[in-house]
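okkk here we go again. third time trying to get the flavin-adenine dinucleotide bound version out, last two times i messed up the smiles copy paste (missing a bracket lol). double checked this time i swear
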Amino acid sequence: MNPSVLILGASSDIGMALAEKFAQNGYPLVLAARNSQRLAPLQSDLEIKYGTGCAILEFDITHTDTHQATWDSLREKPGITICVAGYMKDNEQVIKDTAETLKTIATNFTGPVAMLNIIAADYAKNGKGIIAGISSVAGLRGRQSNYIYGSAKAGLTAYLSGLRNRMYPHQVHVLTVLPGFMDTKMTAHLKLPKLLTAQPAAVADAIYRGIQKKKNIIYIKWFWKWIMFIIRHIPESIFKKKKL
Amino acid sequence: MKKQIANWGNYPRIESDEQTFSFTEELQTYVKKKEPFIARGYGRCYGDASLAPNTISTLRYNKVLSFDTEKGIFECQSGLTLDKILTIIVPKGWFLPVTPGTKFITIGGAVASDVHGKNHHVDGSFSAHVIDMDVIGTDGTLYTCSPTQHSDLFWATCGGMGLTGVISRIKFDLKKIETSYIKQKQLKAKNLEDILRLFEENSHYTYSVAWIDCLKKGKGFGRSILILGEHAKKEEIPAKYQGNPLKLPPQKQILFPFNLPSFVLNKLTVKAFNFLYYGKNLKREINNVVSYEPFFYPLDAIQLWNRGYGKKGFIQYQFVLPLESKAGLIEILHRISDKGIGSFLAVLKVFGRQDDLISFPREGYTLALDIPVRNGLFPFLDELDALVLKYGGRLYLSKDARMKPEILENSYPHLSAFKEIISKYNPQSAFSSLQSERLHITSGKSLI
Ligand SMILES: Cc1cc2nc3c(=O)[nH]c(=O)nc-3n(C[C@H](O)[C@H](O)[C@H](O)COP(=O)(O)OP(=O)(O)OC[C@H]3O[C@@H](n4cnc5c(N)ncnc54)[C@H](O)[C@@H]3O)c2cc1C
Ligand SMILES: NC(=O)c1ccc[n+]([C@@H]2O[C@H](COP(=O)([O-])OP(=O)(O)OC[C@H]3O[C@@H](n4cnc5c(N)ncnc54)[C@H](OP(=O)(O)O)[C@@H]3O)[C@@H](O)[C@H]2O)c1
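finally!!
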């Protein structure tokens, strides 16, 4: 039997596409999100189409004091956890507003770390489990246009790589997902280059495959790896003068 | 996001700020915006009904809410497409109560155009099968309406082209089937008299439609092929299908690769028709069992076949004339064949009785044909409009991109009642399309 899949931040376009993909392949689901009653239509949809069980869980990734209780409330522990939650606002606004800065860091970094620590400890104890975290190529180098979000994702990427290392002897696998542009609510107001932008269903397919094949790090759309390779290797003395 | 959009006829093409939503609350927030907008489904109406400078796409709002497999009642959000619904209901022994000639439309679009199918003379149009639905009004209010609850809103929404509000949820009845196959009969008709007689003789068939040759003159004027069908019973399908009688047809599609000059497509349809007409041993009657896919959706096998009509796009001209106006049908067909600009093939069907507020179907003959956009086309269509009007008929809003407001005014008998309901539920013309502006149904001043 397939393990169930916990999706943290299931109300996002990526979260919903992942739910569809896993349900289609016969995995029961636990959908965790804020205002989780909004997910009732998705729940009925998946149950009717695929006949798989689907539970809904109220969850805020920045409310770290509730994380242990949230995990404990699950009677059967999901064997796969995918952390999708994230938060990105215009950098210019964020740097002027401490609350926004801290919210960006809490949603993309400290919140996921707090929750995944709890889940990883449980997985390690049982000697099995898979964790996938959605970070971003924005975390591979801080750029003036997006460095608060970028640095939070950099923290998450480093955390996931350390976690993978630490979990290896416990047969717990950790996947780092590095998307470039994705066509979601987060980017709905931006004019993204069509060729570089991934659709939610394609993202879900890629993450599903990454999990099946126990990949360590995947980029969403292969060329992002090379784009970022170049960006990462521009010498700092030149990079600091660039408008990126 | 701003982008170029057009509907199936590729005419007109405009820039629109198209937004999406996944949750009802997001839709309720969106409708309160200042500028007018129109709901947009899969964009398979042909003209400008779902075009406006601001559009809200329902395609991500597509969840199945309930499916009673015992009673055959289905409930979903408005952006779900018929092709998805079929994959869910057919394996459980149910079919759509009414389906248009393509399965790539949303259920919201099916209600907003009040679509008809090959079974109109038996089962009516889609609205006849709607149990109830939710419509989001201008201030974000959610109205649940049905033939008995907010019935004015219900009837103005069925066939109302999105002008009463955004349909969010729809609950409707399904049709029971034993197999996913259709028992099909094809009959050749020598001329127009012959085909109209055959329609009458075969009116007990659930499904009927004819392909008619619009260019043939003289004795063979109106030669056509009548296609009849019934959902096959289990014992009627070949033994090799018996093991899985509700099997879904394979989803094969080839893509029409680029825009073509329109004469190419015409040549292809000529060939296809002649193949059917003269092929198969010249038999007058052919009987066989086919999957529902080629029976209902023969054109869906070629993705984006509308590119066959070239960059400038095309108009699908569809009208209905009362049964007593056979002379009108003959006159219009003559005009089309004399002009020689129509597509070679047209679809002819006899509608059963219907008298709804604003829906297109009414008892009579309906003809639909594709005509590529070119100089001189619109004046010619104006002439045809005058004939349609003279014979007491009307045009289908879902196919229209160019009719004049006077034509609408004089051909839809309940138009003023419809407009009154619009002014009640959509007083500021918040829901407004290029079409509704052109036809003076709304007056959203800020539209182009
Ligand atoms: C190959 C082909 C064959 C066809 N055959 C037939 C046929 O046999 N019979 C027939 O009746 N039609 C037929 N049609 C027309 C088609 O069924 C209708 O135009 C249908 O409305 C298209 O639905 P859509 O989802 O593409 O909506 P769109 O084309 O995007 O919109 C159509 C109208 O519905 C409104 N609308 C869409 N969603 C909503 C919503 N949620 N709330 C409120 N308003 C909404 C729009 O504002 C617009 O006025 C055919 C079309 C094609 C391309
Ligand atoms: N879109 C891109 O181009 C892009 C590129 C690279 C990486 N990413 C990353 O990909 C992931 C998915 O993003 P997306 O594009 O689908 O964006 P999105 O629609 O904005 O999704 C973000 C998700 O995080 C949830 N969330 C935010 N704050 C939360 C909180 N405090 N507690 C719980 N959940 C919270 C949101 O829930 P609500 O619905 O409640 O707000 C939403 O489900 C994110 O981690 C994002 O950073 C996106």
